[in-house]
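Working notes for the structural subgroup meeting. M.R. asked for a predicted model of this chain before we commit to crystallization trials. I am recording the input and output together here so anyone reviewing the notebook later can reproduce the run.

Input as submitted:
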Amino acid sequence: MNNRFKNEYLAHTSPRPESGWKAHAKRIMSNPLGQFGLLGLLLAITQLLNIAGIVPRSIMTTIAFVSIYSIAAIGFCLLLGYSGLASLGTAGFMGLGIYLCHYGLQEWQISILPAFLIAGIASIVIGFVVGFVSLRIEGIYLAIMTLALSEIIVKLLKTIKGSTLIIRGVNLNFFGIPLSNNAVYFTIIVVLVMLLVGTANLINSPTGRAMVAMKSSVAAAQAMGISLLKYRLLAFIISTLFAGIAGFFYHAYLPGISPTTATILTLSMSLNILGAVIIGGAKSLWGTLVGTFVIYGFQSIFLQNIAFFNENPAFMMMVTGVLIILVVMFYPGGFAQMLFTFRLWLKKMTKKWRIYRYGIEE
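Returned structure, recorded in token form:
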């Protein structure tokens, strides 16, 4: 009898699980696969609208390059925001992916998949070397070291290729099947979503928590038994791998590298990725995506038809610099922190309004 009354009491007092399509949608959006999968679906739909002639080609080109740069920014977010390791070698690591894409598809005449694997393996090797060196160098000296390594890679690639950075188009094929530019775009989106989901799961795993502990205090992390060698190597390997993948897809989507587009292999490229992560939020993948869009896509999509910005293309760089200064001074968490602060303020104001309208709740 007592058990029956107990069960009836729990049935009336315990919160009932939500049901219906709203609850189902909430469960889907509560995990990284649902969130980033929806992003990938929207990007794919945008490409389909472009094929139908609704969305201009220029906008799709900008979205494609923002997606490519986002791949490199995700790795840098994991490296800087969660592991606390500085790097200015993104441009050189992307250059490695660009040249291996060219040599694999054009010089060696292999399919895009083996060329992709070769670029990935080379990036992992470079990441292993940088991660091993990082055990003895920290802070600004580590950033200088990665910058020097980036310049060595770029100069070496220029020496192998010739005196210029000009690279002609490549023959895109998947084991003999020709690949169109649209196919490359959809591949970029799939890879971007996979890397976002994988990185989000890694961050929420014991490995991600170990990286955060390493960033907070090296001495405390070592006292807890966290291996600096293991996690620093892992952070740099992932970062350089993502940068190499971004460089590979950059050349695959943009078949020819001219002196105009060769600026991707300069220090400004590394600084732009750094700026994107800082503006968006060094500990937020969504913030990193927003920051990358602000750096690489906002002007091309929203400001391209304004005469002032066409006549002064460097103005956006000044705005980016001001944003970085403001973020570092007032919102170290970037746009992600701003959004969190706004949500708290909105919740507080809503509560005040309810008290004003209905009185103090019991």
